[in-house]
Amino acid sequence: MEELIEINRPEEEINLLSPLIWAYVGDCIFELYIRTNLVNKTNLKPHKLHIETIKYVKAKAQAEFLKKIQDKLTEEEKDIVRRGRNTQNHHTPKNSNVLEYSHATAFEALIGYLYLTKKFTRLKEIFEFLKIA
Asked: What residues make up the domain containing 83?
C-alpha cells in the first residue's frame, strides 16, 4: 500500500490537522482492512461481504474495538484518541448514540493518524490484536 499511495505531509503538519481529518482517513483505511480481510478469509458474494463488513465498521463495533485496545495504547496514541473523542463533530449519529459515535470517531482518528504518519507496523499490531474476521 505504501508504494501505491504517497503520503507526503510531514508528521508535524499531520499533528496540526483536525482529528476529524484523521478520522476521515481512518474510516477508509479500517474499512479497506476489513473488506480485504473478508475477501481473503471467506468466499462470500458481494452483498454478503457488504453485510459482514457493516458489522465491523459501524460505530458500536468501533467503540468496542477502542475499548479493547485502550490499555495497549502508548501515551501519544491515547492523546490522539482523546483529541478524536473530544473534537466537535456536527454530525448526528444515525444508528448509534452520541457516546458510541464519539468513541468510534476516536478509533477512526487513531487509525487515520497512524496511517498518515506512516506508522504501518503499529497499525498492523493494532489490527492483529483486534483479531478481526
From this structure: 11-130
Tally of structural domains, the chain: 1
Residue 3 lies in a domain: no
Write out pLDDT tens, residues 20-71.
999 999 999 999 999 999 999 999 999 999 999 999 999 999 999 999 999 9
Q: Which residues are catalytic?
A: 27
Distance CA 2, CA 87 (A): 28
122 domain residue, yes or no: yes
Q: What is the DSSP string of the chain?
A: -TTTS---S-HHHHHHS-HHHHHHHHHHHHHHHHHHHHHHH----HHHHHHHHHHHHSHHHHHHHHHHHGGG--HHHHHHHHHHHHS------SSS-HHHHHHHHHHHHHHHHHHHTT-HHHHHHHHHHHT--
In CATH, what number is assigned to the domain containing residue 59? 1.10.1520.10
Each residue's pLDDT tens digit, 97-116: 888 999 999 999 999 999 99
Q: pTM of this prediction? A: 0.93
What radius of gyration do the chain's Cα atoms show? 15
